[in-house]
Amino acid sequence: MKVLITAGPTREPIDPVRFLTNRSSGRMGYALAEAFARREEQVLLISGPTQLDIPDHVDFIPVETAQEMYDAVAHYLPKMDAAIFCAAVADYTPVTVAAQKIKKSADTLTLELKKTPDILGSARQVIGFQGYLVGFAAETEDLEQNARTKLERKGCDMIIANNVSRAGIGFDSAENEVLIVEAAENTALPRDTKEHLAQHLADIISERWLRKHGTMS
Ligand code: C5P
Questions:
Q1: Which ligand 1 atom lies nearest to the CA of residue 138?
Q2: Which of 120, 154, 164 to mutate for ligand 1's pocket (most ligand atoms within 8 Å of CB)?
Q3: Which of 10, 131, 155, 173 has its CB 3.0 to 4.6 Å from that of 124, i.e. a possible disulfide?
Q4: Does residue 102 belong to any structural domain of this protein?
């Protein structure tokens, strides 16, 4: 099976020395890449900037902005059997990037932002991906309902949802606790390290993919 995984935050430049980003460590995506590589699947990891080592036996494409991540995904996705969108992509990016460092002058400064491309939301409708599609959902309320809405709206086979309002799990932490939402069922995976959860998720996703497509390629 060929698996594409997006991971990490994106970096949206404001000027030559500043950018907008978020607290994603990339750890869940890298753990998934490692878990699939251990299963001897072919893994392509497309990642924003992180502090993590690239897992062994994984093809790696570094990107910075949401647009660069979109372009890399659009290029490679059609050849993939499964895709897991783990990246915390910035929802907005500056309309213009200042060519020179913005000087400190007025008391207030307004940045105008525009929406970035929704990479997961484009996978089916724009890129025409037919393979097994997995998205993540970070929610602070109505976890299952919001994940189920996302599953349908973005044409996913699975949404892995985590409650980011709880301390010690999810964003920028070593552990996670997720609810797997699929069309016919929900499966709760209890709190564990991201590495253990990733192994469990890789087993489940491989099994679902086999069930849907019959044979490994
Ligand atoms: O709609 P929301 O941003 O909550 O969806 C989260 C899911 O969508 C994650 O799987 C994330 O990787 C993906 N996403 C994306 N491109 C964006 C925003 C989110 O692929 N611009």
A1: 4
A2: 120
A3: 155
A4: no
Q: Which residues have C-beta atoms less than 6 Å from ligand 1?
A: 6, 66, 85-87, 89, 116-120, 135-137, 150
Q: How many structural domains comprise the chain?
A: 1
Task: Please indicate, yes or no, if residue 156 is contained in any of the structural domains.
Answer: yes
CA distance 154 to 135: 9
Q: What separation in Å is there between the alpha carbon of 141 and the centre of ligand 1?
A: 17
Give the pLDDT score at 215: 62
21-52 pLDDT, tens digit each: 999 999 999 999 999 999 999 999 999 999 99
Domain with 62, as residue range(s), is 2-95+112-212
* Cα(200)–Cα(13) distance, integer angstroms: 36
CATH code where residue 127 lies: 3.40.50.10300
Q: Within a domain: residue 72?
A: yes
Question: Which atom belonging to ligand 1 lies closest to the Cα atom of 136?
Answer: 10
Which token pair is 166?
């709880």
Q: What is the pTM of this model?
A: 0.95
Query: How would DSSP label each residue in 71-129?
Result: HHHHHHGGG-SEEEE--B--SEEESS--SSPPPP-SS-----EEEPP-HHHHHHHTT--
The DSSP call for residue 53 is P
